[in-house]
Give the backbone structure.
Amino acid sequence: MVTRLTNALEIKKLTKVFGDRKALDRVTFDLPEGAFLSIFGPNGAGKTTLLRILSTLSRPTQGSVRVMGIDAKEEPDQVRGHIGLISHNSMLYPDLTAMENLMFVARLYGVVNPEERVRELLRSVELDHRRFDLVRTFSRGMTQRLSIARALMNDPQVVFLDEPYAGLDPHAVEIFDELIGGLREGRTFVMVSHDLQKGFDTCTHALVLARGRVVTFAPKEELDFEEFRNLYRQTVGMGVA
Ligand SMILES: Nc1ncnc2c1ncn2[C@@H]1O[C@H](COP(=O)(O)OP(=O)(O)OP(=O)(O)O)[C@@H](O)[C@H]1O
């Protein structure tokens, strides 16, 4: 029997223009299901713009985006049902408790037993004991853990992470790595990272962007870290768009 690998992402000639600036320029790549893609690039390379388009927060100017086979331009709502996003903007309400925040999201997704699901998620990120505390009293690491729980509400097949290590102390990084490690089975991850070593260690595929264009897209087994690092340094030397 031949096992057919499906692609979690199919991106073709994706272009995004802001005024007279091209933030993304004909970006093209396919990512197989179950992969972990790390996206690298200097400031202004287009990483966040790409992540925002993949997660349906922004629309491409040109080109096509398919997430789990669904056209993100035509059916963004359908795509949203399959994805989770963990970003700087935690999408949490600081003046609500952890529990209230997650209950709100559970209702948005029409979760059948919302309270049960919320408690299960809170336990999985080790925040159940803080469920009645306001989010504004949480540390950066705790807020991030809660935003992971929020992003997992719909049991997403594709998870997007925007610089998840920013502002975390080493202990929080460890907890985060463990959490993500436990979620990798059967899921696809896409992470924007400024930490070259960590992003490279974690990934199965690497994408380097510069000035909105793909400099490299390859499975990790085709890349040697030292060469990759040198290439990245040259890329950073290319400057911003
Ligand atoms: N809403 C916007 N309006 C106008 N220009 C924008 C907008 N969003 C992004 N850009 C421009 O698009 C380009 C890519 O920005 P983007 O935020 O995607 O880069 P990035 O690689 O994520 O950078 P960083 O590493 O600094 O976060 C930049 O030149 C930026 O100024």
Q: What stands out?
A: The mean pLDDT is 91.
